[in-house]
Amino acid sequence: MKRLLSTTERSDLRLSLKDALFIGFCALFAVLVRVFFRVKLKISGRSMLPTVFFLMLARGSVRYRFAAIFAGLLAGSAAIFMGFAKQGPLVLLQYLAVATVIDGLAWLLPRRFDHALWSGLTGALAGSTKFFTEYSKNFLIGMDATINLQLSALEGAGAALFGLLAGLLLPVVLRRLKAYGVIS
Fold first, then answer.
1. pLDDT tens digits, residue range 93-108?
2. Rounded to whole angstroms, how far apart are CA atoms 111 and 27?
3. Which residue, 14, 135, 166, 170, could crosslink 52 as a Cys pair with Cβ 3.0–4.6 Å?
4. How many other C-beta atoms can be found within 10 angstroms of the C-beta atom of residue 137?
5. Maximum CA pair distance of the chain?
């Protein structure tokens, strides 16, 4: 029994070429969708929809334990390379914060991305990381604490709402990918 458990744990840490390519495509699509929809809509947190969706898709369809973190690292690096926003290297931290929440909840609630409730909760919590990254960024530039808290709460609430929407979309897409044999 002990040997069986250790074999299973080791297989979760191995990354096949097919899985690595799928994670890379998810990271690429997370960045490209943001590029294509760079329209100024004045809606707080709208960029969390593709970010959360594709990072959760990477984690939900690949058995690799750190799939979302790996996809977040790739997406953040691509966003830095493409010159996203005015934040520079903080973009990488935003992607990694979202990915860490997704991988952490996937570790606590294994195989729950197939259910809309748990997937939506994970998406909302991952989107709410925007509050902490926005607060940190505004703190570093010297914004007043009260204004910073209000602005960050508004951004975090909007991002949590769009993260919830992304989480609710995920089970449908995962079922379709499994039905077509793209993922197992």
1. 989 999 999 999 999 9
2. 21
3. 166
4. 18
5. 58
Within 10 A of 40 (CB to CB), how many other CB atoms are there?
Answer: 5
CA distance 26 to 24: 5
> Which 3 state secondary structure label does DSSP give 166?
helix
Contact predicate 46/162, CB 8 Å: yes
How close are the terminal C-alpha atoms of the chain, in Å? 25
The count of C-alpha atoms lying within 13 angstroms of the C-alpha of 47, restricted to the half-sphere facing its C-beta, is: 21
Which residues, in sequence order, are CB contacts of 43 under 8 Å at separation 6+?
A: 158
Beta carbons within 8 Å of 60's beta carbon, 6+ residues apart: 106, 113, 114, 119, 170, 174
Instruction: Report pLDDT digits (tens) over 13-65.
Output: 788 888 999 999 999 999 988 877 766 767 777 888 999 999 999 999 888 88
What is the Cα 116 distance to its own chain's centre?
16
Q: Going from the N-terminus, what domains does the chain have, and what CATH number goes with each?
A: 16-36+45-179 (1.10.1760.20)
Whole-angstrom distance, CA of residue 108 vs CA of residue 100? 12
Cα(174)–Cα(183) distance, rounded to whole angstroms? 8
